[in-house]
Amino acid sequence: MKISGSGIHLPAPGLFVLAPALRVEYSLISEAEMTKLGVNIDHIATIRQARRALEPDPVAAAVLAELAGADGITVHLRQDRRHIHDEDVRRLRATVTTRLNLEMAATDELVQVAIDLHPDQATLVPEKRNEITTEGGLNVTANTAPVAAAIKVLTQAGIQVSLFIDPDIEQIDAAADLGALMVELNTRAYSEAAPKSPDLTGEALDKELTRVIQASERARRKDIKVLAGHGLTYRNVRLISDIPEIEELNIGHNIIARASLVGLERAVREMLQAMGRGIEA
Ligand code: PXP
Prior knowledge:
- By secondary structure, the protein is an alpha/beta fold.
- The protein is built from twelve helices and eleven strands.
- It has a single domain (about 30-275), classed as Aldolase class I (TIM Barrel, Alpha-Beta Barrel), CATH 3.20.20.
- It has helices at about 15-20, 40-50, 60-65, 85-95, 110-115, 145-155, 170-175, 190-195, 205-220, 235-240, 255-260, 265-275; strands at about 1-5, 5-10, 25-30, 35-40, 70-75, 100-105, 120-125, 160-165, 180-185, 225-230, 245-250.
- Pyridoxine-5'-phosphate binds near residues 40, 42, 133 and 232.
């Protein structure tokens, strides 16, 4: 639970009793310190690219997400440009009024693109050509040189750098050794444990949640800002957003998935209207 100056924000009923083994910290924080939400809009571009069409436009999605209260917009400019394109990032840079976070591999090419397009933040992620989505965190201990070089160049260009890493103490320590000021903890393992635990409790879930909590605490002790994301859903998000050290979550798939359903009825009605059939009972 986080307690803000303007009110007490309770977790979903029962979360305390459902996860008794977990340490839940109570902290007095201001409204400004509530967990922020960065919305990943890659899937909007994925739908567009399914037809190589003009719609839906990620820029329109970013505007709507911001109007709804999103604290930031995230896109992943993949090396194969399978969904988001350079031109999308350029237009988002001109439109986003919150924070633009560019996920990218730590390659020379992408570092140069980031310098040219100047997002507020660059999140360095590992990338495999055939993966459906980012599969794991950066192995900072094994890729020290390219990661260190990317951090240096991007920081010099005035872009804040975050490292997407698994919630492992060694990775946190390695990130700190590289001078990282921000990390995003990979919640994929936590999220994958959650569906096997319908009541959000049990050994597997507790283990993964504990890893995220311990990594968050370690990072904060090293003065590293902590973000988290991957696989978070409307059902499993609360145990992560209640971790006091985590300042921001990046969520994409589940938000866009829900949008496609909650917006479908209206979209069908609007098509009927466009066909001149008006609103049917
Ligand atoms: N953070 C990173 C680094 C990612 O690569 C992704 C997926 O693009 C996310 C967060 C968001 O994950 P999801 O789409 O599962 O919410």
